[in-house]
């Protein structure tokens, strides 16, 4: 077997498709023949602004879907030949980088280790066994690949005890908790998954979106949805959350005042006074509300119990019975590694309610 990858060979350079090493999975890892990849906004930003690459040449990419080629020692929930989705993450990385301005880019784990095997834009990639999940034959690789990073990011904030600490999700009729969660930004990739996970955990889900995405949010399971641009949105959210114990906020946007508004809602409804964010939050918020930014890789490292349940138990069953939907819809922009650069360019121009995807096989 041989491997090829879409390399970024120098700062600001366009991607170049060339040979890459053929990897062997270590203990706790899985080698995947990649059939589809998705593009994150951070990919083109790293290319354009030379953010946080230890050395060149390098391979970008975090989200993969494909077929298991080889299984490392200790991995038992998938086997050779299985169809899978995977969040490409180095299982040896134990803690986040300290500088807050780098937070968003820390989701790109290969960048932190300098090891290209933990990168997605290649024909064969090594995935942590903690962040790989079997997918049913009814779901295409292009559909499945929209999920991994969003799953990990949403789960870190919802389930880790230093954030919201919710009950783990269940694919089969979760028992109602009597508690409510606010998810700010249901139509974003992370918000889309956060709404579904919180609902699968037995919580009432109140969320925000643009009016044209109201039905989309309800399709995901939201109990109530409000226009985030409405001048009365805080008051309307407070009213909608009454009658349930408040379990906290997941702010999947974390900019343009969303954290401040989320915190104001929390301070007024009582209960859990915490906002999980996807970007570094402001230092001072309303009342006694605290906030902190999530770090996706922790579902495979410091809180591997979250990744193990999510990818090993919940995702396969929930995809099988339809309780987890592969949203947003994939926007397939090309085929082959040669199309990955085009995918970055499309993502840079802006995409709404879609996930940029490239088919490799």
Automatic annotation (TrEMBL):
SMART domains: PKS_ER. Coiled coil: none annotated. CDD domains: enoyl_reductase_like. It comes from the Eukaryota. Residues 10-358 form the Enoyl reductase (ER) domain. One of its GO terms (molecular function) is oxidoreductase activity, acting on NAD(P)H. It holds the Pfam family ADH_N. InterPro entries: ADH-like_C, ADH-like_N, ER, GroES-like_sf, NAD(P)-bd_dom_sf, Trans-enoyl_RdTase-like. This is SPOSA6832_04454-mRNA-1:cds. The gene is SPOSA6832_04454.
């Amino acid at each position: 077997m041989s491997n090829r990858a879409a390399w970024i060979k120098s700062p600001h350079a366009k991607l170049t498709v060339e040979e890459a090493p053929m990897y062997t999975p270590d203990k706790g890892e899985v080698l995947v023949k990649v059939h589809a990849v998705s593009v994150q906004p951070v990919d083109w930003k790293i290319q354009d602004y030379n953010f946080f690459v230890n050395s060149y040449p390098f391979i970008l990419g975090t989200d993969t879907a494909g077929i298991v080629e080889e299984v490392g020692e200790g991995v038992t929930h998938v086997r050779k030949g299985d169809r899978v989705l995977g969040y490409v993450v180095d299982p040896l990385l134990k803690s986040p980088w300290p500088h807050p301005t780098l937070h968003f880019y820390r989701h790109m784990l290969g960048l932190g280790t300098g090891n290209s095997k933990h990168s997605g834009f290649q024909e064969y990639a090594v995935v942590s066994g903690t962040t790989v999940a079997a997918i049913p034959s009814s779901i295409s690789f292009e559909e499945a690949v929209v999920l991994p990073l969003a799953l990990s990011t949403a789960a870190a904030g919802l389930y880790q005890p230093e954030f919201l600490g919710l009950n783990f999700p269940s694919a089969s009729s979760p028992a109602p908790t009597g508690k409510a969660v606010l998810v700010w930004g249901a139509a974003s990739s992370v918000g889309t998954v956060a709404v579904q996970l919180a609902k699968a955990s037995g919580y009432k889900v109140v969320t925000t979106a643009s009016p044209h995405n109201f039905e989309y949010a309800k399709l995901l399971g939201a109990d109530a949805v409000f226009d985030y641009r409405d001048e009365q949105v805080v008051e309307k959210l407070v009213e909608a959350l009454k009658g349930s114990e408040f379990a906290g906020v997941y702010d999947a946007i974390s900019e343009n005042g969303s954290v401040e508004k989320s915190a104001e809602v929390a301070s007024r409804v009582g209960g859990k006074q915490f906002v999980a964010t996807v970007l570094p939050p402001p230092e001072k918020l309303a009342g006694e509300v605290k906030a902190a930014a999530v770090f996706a890789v922790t579902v495979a490292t410091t809180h591997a119990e979250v990744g193990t349940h999510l990818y090993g138990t919940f995702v396969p069953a929930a995809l099988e019975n339809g309780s987890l939907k592969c949203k947003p819809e994939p926007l397939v922009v090309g085929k082959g590694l040669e199309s990955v650069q085009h995918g970055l360019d499309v993502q840079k121009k802006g995409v709404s309610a879609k996930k940029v995807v490239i088919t490799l096989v």
